[in-house]
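TICKET #2291
ISSUE: user wants both folds in one file
ATTACHMENT 1:
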Amino acid sequence: MKKYTVLISLLILTAALYGCSDKDSGSLSPESLFSKTCSECHKLKKVEDYSGDMTWSDVLVKMRTERKLEISDESAEIIIGYLNETFPPGE
C-alpha cells in the first residue's frame, strides 16, 4: 500500500510541475506568451504604461530573480523581443 501512495504522490507532483511550466511557449505567439506570462502577477496595463529607466531585459531579470518568475531563457527572450518591438524603451 505504501508503494502505491508514493507512486501516486510522484505522479501528482509530476503533473503539477508539468502544468506550471512554460511548455507551450513554442506554440504561442509572442503577444500571447507575454499576455499569459505577465498577467499572472499584474495587469498588462502596468506593463504597457511602464516608463521607468530599466530596459525590458533588466525588467525580466528582476521579475525572474526578485519576483521568482519561472520561465525558460527562450521564453524570456521572446517576451523581451516582443516588448522592445511593441513598447520601445524611452517612448
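ATTACHMENT 2:
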Amino acid sequence: MAPVDKYFALVRRRIKAFDRGARPTSGETIWYVNAFYDPRMIEKVATIFRFYYNYMLPESAESGRRKAERQTPAMKIGTARGLVYVRDFLASLDLPLRETTLSPTLNYHRLIHLIF
C-alpha cells in the first residue's frame, strides 16, 4: 500500500488541481480553489503525469543507488530501456513548437501548458 500512497501524495503535491480542498473557518463547505473547470482536463493531466512518472521520473536519492543506476518504474519491469527525455517526447508529438522549448530541463508543468 505504501507505493500507492506515495504515488497519490506525489500527484497531489505536483499537480495543484489535484490538491485536497480547504475548509474556510466561516463555513462548512469545502473550497476547491485550484480545481479544473472542465472535468475532461483531469483525465488528460492524469495521463500525462502517469507517463511522466513511469517513463521520465527516475528513483529518488532515497533508493540508495547512484544517480546513473536509478531507474523509472517502466525500466524496472522491462517496458523501457532508458529514460524518456522531454525533448524526445515533444519531438514525437509533431507540435509546432519553438526550438527553445525543447530543452532537457523543461518541467512537466510547462509541458502541460504547451500541449493544451
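RESOLUTION: both attachments delivered.
EXTRA DETAIL ON ATTACHMENT 2: The chain has a mean pLDDT of 77.
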